[in-house]
Sequence to fold (315 residues):
Amino acid sequence: MLLLMLVFFSFFAFFGNGQVLWRVGKGNPRMAGGALAHVGIVLMIFGILGSSAFDNTLTDGQKLGKDKPVFVIDEGQTRTIEGYTVTFADKKTTEEGRLAYKLDFTDPSGRAFSLEPVVYKNRRNQWVQHPDIRSFLTRDVYVAVSPGAMFNKGGDENQAELLMSPSDSVMVGEKAFAIQYVSMETGSVQKNAANGQSFSALARLKVTNLKTGIQTEITPAYVVPTEGKPATEAVQLPNEDLSISLMAVQATGQKIKLLVRGKDVVEKDWLVVQAYEKPLINLLWLGLIVMTGGFVLATYRRVKEEQFSNARLAR
Fold:
């Protein structure tokens, strides 16, 4: 209700001051400063209302914390979010030695553009985010990112967690190995009388050494004990400093989570993205320009009147 009242009074002030500006401007443009400043203020209000009340958050339903809608994207991945096609295309180091993450966008109308938000650690070892903004005539697109390293709790750097679907293939270890998820076998239970454990799932993986071309098939298992929490056992790749564990199995869709360990393993980079579409934000800047012009015009008129008055008194 309060918002509707503010919109109503803003429209009333806009048209009222617009009429005054038209009448005064036709007769004596120097007298139009006050009305012009008021029109600028109303335009700023329209811009603030439009950008805050009608903004569009680009999200897939995930939230960072309790109140920040976001979406997650892996390096090289392309996603469609709220009609926008988004690709995590690249990352580069700026002249200041900071990381900039390049995101390629295509909006619902087919217009393509790129944004490069920056994230870095300051001297106090605190993360600092510099959003990037792309301005259009009717809206602005605002993007800030949080890289996966921000959520790293200081674990082993020589390991990576991979979420994979059947037929997925990913490279690890600076493109030294390719891991392909071939299939998953469930329901084959093997009880162990000694410890009561049973294998509830086996992931069939094909690991290729990209330097030698040697392919190895391994089947890490997801272990369910008769008592306690599920466990996993790492499978060591023969003659390689690389081991793979099956950490979780999705109930539907056959997705799995793998933990890959090895001296050359580098986890694929990923971003948590906060993106907003702000309509009518240019009205704010237009209003600021118009308001400033009005103040300058009014000040100019006052100075001229003072000079004229002083000149008359001097006579």
